[in-house]
Structure formats: C-alpha cells, structure tokens
Amino acid sequence: MIFYRGCTALITGASAGLGTEFAHQLAPYAARLILVARRFDRLQDLKGELEENHPHLQVFTYALDVTSSADTDTFFQWLNNDSGLRVNVLINNAGLGDHGDFETSDWSRIQSMIDVNITALTRFSHRLIPQLRHVGQGAVLNVSSVAGLLPIPSMAVYAATKAYVNSLSESLRVELRGSGVSVTALCPGPVDTEFGSVAKREVGEGHAAPEIFKVRAEQVVREGLEAAAAGRARVIPGLLVAVVLTVASTIPIYILRHFLKSRN
Length: 264
Known about the structure:
By secondary structure, the chain is α/β, with parallel strands linked by helices.
C-alpha cells in the first residue's frame, strides 16, 4: 500500500459498497480523494468520516450521474481547469447489474447498464489516462466481475459489459507499457453489497450464491489495490473463486454450453 502514499485518487460509485470501501482503505495513505456518485448526501457523510479519522486527508465530493455526457463534461472541466487536482489513481468502480431473462428486461435497464458499465468507464479512462501518462506514475483499476470471464444466462448483458471491461483493460495495459501507468481488472465473485439487491427485478428473485464462494468487500478491495500497486493485469479475489473460475475459463465453449444450459 506504500504505492498509494501521497496519491490523488478518483473513485466513481463512491457512495456505497466497494466504492466506500476503496475510500476507507486508501484514506490512510492518499493525500487527496475525489469521490464521485449520484447520492451527494452519502458522499458528504463519507467525507466527514474520512476527514475526521485522517486529518492529513483532503476529500473532494462531486454529485454526478456518470451516464450524463453533459454533466460528465462539466465535471472534467472542474477537475482539469478549476480544482487544481492532478489524478494519478483512477478507480472505475461505478456499475449496474440485472438478473433475469434478456427478453423480459426493460430496455431502460439494459441501456443504463451499458451507459454505466461501458460508456462511463471508457469516458473516465479516456479523459484521465493522458493525465496519468503525463505524471509518469499511476494506476487504473477497473472493477469488473467474474461474470465477464464467462457467458452467463439470466445475466447476459451484465456479463457482456464486464467482458468488455476485461478486454479494454488488457488492451490499455499493452498500450501503456513503459509509461509508468498500470491497468488492472478487478474481477470479484459474489460480494454482499447493495449491488445484488439492486440487480434483482423482484424481491426473492434469483439464486443466492453459496456462502463458500462469497468474499467480503474488505478483502475484494484489499486484493484489488494490492494487485494494482504490483502492476498485475487481473485479480480474482478469494482463492476458491479464483481456482474455480480459472479452471472454468479453460473449458471449451462447446462443453460449457451444455453446462450453462443445464443451469438455466
């Protein structure tokens, strides 16, 4: 974690779940945190808590719907021209999910997933990577999912958006080789956060992941930050989840199709 000492980190989706945990774990080391999310009241509560516990830390909060191009442009105008801040750690954490058959999903829900998981993450990366490259040292940590490693019926669009995140992360990593900027994809499995309840369309819908596969948010964030600091390309938190997904990703797709069909 010494890698993050004195850094200026920007965290999207910082008002809950993994985003809040990223802020807590970076706070002892970072000099400045920029917290972005829609729910400004939660951001302000988090800011107060962090600054009280870490007097050295400056916390900047910005209420932003990352799906709005106009609002995002205004944010970057503030960040680049008015704030005087220079980001060297970007954590693309904002994300949305959906659980249920593709054909019965509301289009607005599908569009929101694409806008947040793909468009917003790409926009933030595109706007900030030149700054990170100019600084000459930094990290981009993209919060993806194990869902991006395999096609998943009943989570088809979500899994596809996370496959995009994984692919983009790998490509950017190659492009930035030698620049001092690393790109890491964090691929957690089941985690107890608000994400799961928001992804459900109805109360009681879906199948709960076995407890043995669940990894605490604190561990997910710690392993993600450590992987980014070490310049690793991808991390799957939790030994059991990592082993299972690594093995599953080596199974030929024609065999995998039969297994997925039986689970649907």
